[in-house]
Amino acid sequence: MEEARPVRPEELGQVLALVNKVFRTGVDQDMSTDYPLVFAPGNLDNLRVVSEGGSIFSHAAMARRELREHGCALPVSMICAVATDPERRRRGAASRIMEDTVEAMAARGDAFGLLWTGPARDFYRRLGWEVVGSNGWAYQVEPQLAGRFEQPLPVRPFQAGTDLERIIEIHEAQPRRLTRTEAEYRTLLGLPKSEVWVAEEKGRVEGYLVVARAYNKSGVVEWGGTPEALSSLLARALPEPAGERMQVFVPLPDNPMTELLTGRGCRTRIPMETADGCGLKMVRILSLGNLLRQLSTCLKNRLTGGSGQVSLWVRETGERVDLRWDGGDLEVVGGRASGPQEGAQELSLRQAARLVFGPEKPSQILDPSQEDAQDLDRAFPFVFHIWMLDYV
Question: Cα 91 to chain center, whole Å?
Answer without folding.
Answer: 29
